[in-house]
What does this fold into?
Amino acid sequence: SGELYCSLPNPRNVHFESINMKNVLHWSAPEGTGDGVLYRVKYAVYGVGKWIRKPECRNINRTWCDLSRETSDYEEQYYASVKAFLNGTCSDWMETTRFNPLTDTKIDPPMVRVSSTDKSISIILTAPEKWKRSPEEVSVSLLQVYPGLQYNISVLKKKTKKRWFFSISNNTLVVPWLEPGTAYCVSAQIHVTTPLLDSDFSKEHCIATLKDK
Amino acid sequence: KIFHLGACRVSMSMAEIRAGFTAIKANIQSRDPIRTLSILSHPHSLHKVKVERCCITHHLFTFYVDKVFKHCKTEDSFVNRKISSIANSFLSVRRKLGQCHEQNNCVCGEESTEKFKQILANYEGLNVTTAAMKSLGELDILLDWMDKS
It folds into this structure.
């Protein structure tokens, strides 16, 4: 169909929201438009000469579109764009800024597992996996994506509220010389120095050291 | 961060350069309206070409020092300060890479030479200011590629 005369207000705040490289396009409805607005989405690989329509996001009424599959190559950068339609008229195409999955994603905290002896706590951390198309697809740890990935670990002695911080590159830590029969709480964060990316701290995992034999 | 580029070892304040670029990325990239062409990634992504890392890094740092930073003046003093800070970092790395080059530790093979010729052709296909601003907006492509080693 030929291009309509587009007098509809534009979709607003068109942007990617990305967690562990699950890259979802979000936007806000055009100002002053009630229900009934439909949207179309297209995307482009930066430096490649064509825009590609996303069929699953054609004439949708929601204000998001999952483009994870289309932006899964994190060695490329992308643009995406949204157009609104209502009662036979339309808006302009509204674009994102340039999206770099490698630097613009947010990383989840690591998974934390703890065990204890009478005088020590062992902590095993697992970095989250990169988003994948299907469960059958081979998992890629973010550790492979970010070679400089490190872990910051906080250990809190509940009784005295004394807290220690550790920074490690491998994924295991043993904290020695602890008090037997005492509760400790562990929380961990992922830290990538370059590009600079920090996850939130994980929720606390509390465990008690065994009582003295 | 120490980069091992073949026989060449170069230390570089990557986090500082990254922080400087991140602070001006949206501003610089918004000045580049051309979505369909890339200086570094056209026709093939830097990541996908088998090149000698020292050679390409040396060529690209020379490219940015000689052909990019000096043509990227803006009306925004904050942006200009960030650009000159990045440029100074590039200048010192380029000097170290030059020493490696002189000691024949930074050899260029055919693919590297070809890739760099393509980058120059992409650059010269646009007017200087447009090409320089686009190249600056692609700095993260170079930094991402360097970080991957």
About this structure: Chain B has one domain: 2-147. The CA atoms of residues 62 and 94 of chain B lie 6 Å apart.
